[in-house]
Amino acid sequence: MRGDKKFRRIAAWSITASVMLLAASVIPTPARATAEKTAQTGAVEPKPAATRTVIDEVGRKVTVPAEVQRVVSLAPNLTEMVYALGLQDKLVGDTDYCDTPPAAKSKPHVGGPMSPSLETIVGLRPDLVLATTSINHVETVDALQHLGIPVYTSDPQSVEGMLASTRRMADLMGANEKGEEVVGQLQSRLDALKAKLAGRPMAHVLFVVWMDPLITIGQNTFIADALKWAGAESVVMSDQKWPHLSFEEIVRVQPEYIVLTPDHAESNATGLADLRSRNGWRELDAVVAGHVIVMDSAVNRPSPGMIDAIEQAARMLHPDAFTNDAEPKSASPDGKPQSATPPAPHVKQRNHEETECTACAR
Amino acid sequence: MRPLTPKRILWTCGWLAALLFVTVVLALRMGAYSISVPDIVKALFNGVIGHWQEIPAEHQMVVFGLRLPRIALEILVGASLSVAGVGFQALLRNPLADPYVLGVSSGAALGAIVSLIAVPHTPGAIQVAAFLGAAITIGIVYFLGRRGGQLDSATLLLAGIISASLLSSIIMFLMTTLTTRDFRGMAFWLMGDLSSPPPVTNVFGWLGFLFTVFLIAAGAIYTTSSDLNLILTGEEEARHLGVNVRRVKLVVYVGASILTGLAVSVSGAIGYVGLLVPHVMRMLFGTDHRLLIPASVIGGAIAIVVADTLARTVAVPTEVPVGAMTALAGAPVFIYLMRRRVR
Fold it and tell me: How far apart are CA B119 and CA B71, in angstroms?
């Protein structure tokens, strides 16, 4: 027992000492590193001309070079936005999911938006990283800021929020005029749409995000806001963003329309015919009446392309608003230029415009 | 087996530490950003002597900003879970005991989540809550696992498995119904993940705090190692030899719960490390806790550094949760041990 005690003491001391030594050697070194690093960046930073500091949409200070040259986008909608602003040459990296426009697929990828590789981002030497609250994690943003890489976080909660966000980011990347132009066009399309739908009752819709399990949208999502612009309201009142729904609830509320989007899971319904082949669904009033619309998947992303999806949905949900509107030359009270064009050419022209302003987004 | 002398402990731990060092350098080398070993050594050397200007900014970011803090965290988590595993195995006298299998990790995760809901942004609260979660869970499992006043191996494991699944379902319930999500997702808590960077501004001060807690808890368990050896041969005999069995058990119970809570609070519930590492260490160095505990500290560190390095490099630039890696290696070992015991 005595020898054991002595042994125990020696061993305990040596182990504690070695572990402490290890801890001591690991911890202070990088601590010094960060201190030195800030000192160093403090010394280097002032040299390259001017920087500017803005407050981003979550209230963080972001300091970027006056002329941003290398941008990394951490979300598909932000990538789409960068292309819509004609700034694709400055985009040095995006995520695995950035597929719109197709050219975005050939940019270097930094991983998925939820868990991008920080090392890959560092290696791309960005002077600005774009993030969004709708998909990126706050830890990612924190970590990048900690490394001294400026991150602008956008927080689009609504369609108009998306437009404001686009404008601010255009300004940040030195494309102020282009930003005003793009946003102005989109805003006038929204205004025209609002005028056309004025006075019409909202269609009560079920927006299907996922079929199995059944997931829909809450009232606090940008999709719910987009639907309102298209003259529709989600029948599900929920504070959650993506509530799971029981099918019985749908039977109870009986939505007027079912809104599907083409992407997401393979289990998702593709359209009316598909829903008619599914048990339960085929008995719903909306399905019996054929009130099933397939909305462009652009509605899932708060990006400029979303306006197309809104217009398209409005046409399907309120067809009479568009046919009646075209014959009397200015049915809309304020006589927007768009409502003055006859129906068929109007559609064509709209598509044409679309290819111009969001050519890249298609 | 050769007699266990302090010299042998030091030599064994020295070799293991050297192996850990090599592993760390290799882990520093691996990643999405490519950097050569000479560059790493140069950066480390310049860092140690304070010549920061000599290190390219990107190397500073990747080596000191990203990889070193993460490796330090891997070492902490691996060491904590392994010592917790040794502790629970001794406490429950069951070689299959492991914080994850017994549901203790899930209890700690639930505690951590509750603290994030109840007292967000309180430094240290999450560790305390995770410790409480772990301690309560192991207490419940311990009492459910008794049969006629005796710990029954099968009953104990069943109690642990049931607690684990119950606690996991509570976590899932909370994560799906909560509308605010200021904290990490379900996969983090249930599977264990080191990929998302720590949610603190001063990473190194935070690591210092975690390592201090680790040293206290693991040190406390280590002081009981001679007594644990005696207790494992029989509690009655140990009592006759003057061992305060109650006190030893209390120290190990609290210490192992703290270590589990500590690991889970930073990495979620990483499985099987506390099972795998102590067993490998027993095979290599024998069952004497005076060597087993320090060997498990370093061995656990090596195991997680390797597992997490694989997790972040097998599918670049996407990451695999480290818990998936440890389960791949750990579950077969668990089955092997279980079958051997049954026979």
Answer: 29
